[in-house]
């Protein structure tokens, strides 16, 4: 039996409970530093409270200023360490049996891959928690798929099959780094222009976590999806043709399906169209139900990106209105009872404070 729960037990749950009470889709916005300083910067204001003001370069006066509000905004000078620090608690909840999905959205060149590079640190960090909490060898396995996404639905058990995915067990930091490298190489296969390839494909790194709660004997199973989405920019049909066009349309379709799913969730529709694309099918368990989701909305600060930046921010704003209700850990009812008890005591503590 695998058991890793005892170390996690002490400081876990406070974050989870607070998060559960608030609902579970978070939106962080990250602004890339300007690459071309001679172009006008359209980011007018970044508040520490997650607010952000963008100026329309054609209407720089008051009516051209748009305010957005997110859970957190990382400005152009933000570091990878800051991103890592603010995402760690969420990643940690994977250890408590929650499914977690982090996805990077934005136009090509806005910094998605840059942010998702922290992924290897997350996996290594999870691995460290595992190896520190228990000297067992076989605890964490990781599945990595890059290149264009190929997902088939397996009707029998409603699970998803990824024909191109390689499921590898990782036992050390070196394993993780090698696997990440393999993913980057796979993503570039078939194209000499790596940037074009990566802007038209989604890359998904999934970490499967399995363990047994030493105290209750409950089996925990959870997964962490780290998704570097294809560029969200509109594809001009005149620029691509043939296979390239098909690929671009497919990617556009999957991103618009993601938008449809988000809208349906935001409107609390009874039917959520997960089945319309492979991407949403893959992320189904992370977008609805019992998961915790974090979207990184990436924007470029240059004036010539104004249209795409507004598109990204509006989409992100829509995502932030989605309320999914409480996230649930994938485990047995004793744990749920314990959580409920803790929520009650937390509510009491809050009431006492007021
Ligand atoms: P995307 O994956 O969205 O197409 P990239 O992550 O490849 O964009 O970023 C485009 C370029 O900008 C890269 O050269 C990257 O190193 C740089 N970049 C992106 N975000 C940042 C950042 N926060 N700080 C410094 N450089 C960045
Ligand atoms: Mg990229």
Automatic annotation (TrEMBL):
Keyword Transcription regulation: no
Annotated ranges, domain Kinesin motor: 24-322
Keywords tagged on the record: ATP-binding, Coiled coil, Motor protein, Nucleotide-binding
Keyword Nucleotide-binding: yes
Top-rank taxon, per record: Eukaryota
Sites where the protein binds ATP: 106-113
Protein family membership: Belongs to the TRAFAC class myosin-kinesin ATPase superfamily. Kinesin family. KIN-14 subfamily.
The protein's name: Uncharacterized protein
